[in-house]
Amino acid sequence: MATTLTGGNPHIIQLPKTPSDIPSDPQSIAQQWLTSLEVELSRPENLNINQLFHVDSWWRDMLALDWDMRTVHTATEIQSFLRKLQTNAQLSNFQLQDSGKFQPRLENVVDGLS
Fold first, then answer.
1. Which portions of the sequence form the region Disordered (predicted)?
2. Whole-prediction pTM
3. Distance between CA atoms of 60 and 62, rounded to whole angstroms?
4. Long-range contacts from 87-91, C-beta under 8 angstroms, 24+ separation
5. How many Cα atoms within 13 Å fall on the side-chain side of residue 10?
6. Is 86 within a domain?
7. Dist CA 47 CA 39 (whole Å)
8. 3-state DSSP percent of the chain in helix, strand and coil, to 5
9. Can you give the residue range of the structural domain that contains 77?
């Protein structure tokens, strides 16, 4: 989904369109992603998160993996960061909220906007 310039003006871009089909179950979609992440983290020496993170992703570590507040940018850097620290951290057993404010859900910013 690349953005494109319109009319030669660098300040006007054509934004990508989101799919019109609505995910049927946000909980199962989030769980599938989280399970995939957990599988990758279970083998840090062969960690490959390219299918799980957008190329331009950000990771904010707030003293969980390293005794330093750190922001990591790009999937490649995130992978390197996790590969280096996962052996000692042993992140596992992730669980989603199944109720309340932080459970996976579909939200529309504005009615009719997709």
1. 1-25
2. 0.72
3. 6
4. 87/44, 87/45, 89/64, 89/65, 91/38, 91/41, 91/65
5. 0
6. yes
7. 9
8. 30, 15, 55
9. 47-91
Q: Looking at the domain assignment, is residue 57 inside a domain?
A: yes
Residue 4 scores a pLDDT above 70: no
Q: How many domains does the chain have?
A: 1
Q: How many angstroms separate the Cα of 76 from the Cα of each of 64, 102, 109, 114?
A: 20, 28, 30, 30
- Separation CA 91–CA 9 (nearest Å): 46
- Is 39 a member of any domain? no
**pLDDT tens-digit map of 45-89:** 899 999 999 999 999 999 889 888 999 999 999 999 999 999 999
In a 10 Å sphere around its CB, with 0-12 CB exposed, 13-18 middle and 19+ buried, how is residue 81 labelled? middle
Which position has the token pair 């299918």? 51
Indicate the SS3 state at residue 80: helix
Tell me, yes or no, whether 14 lies in a domain: no
List alpha helices for the chain, DSSP H: 26-41, 75-89
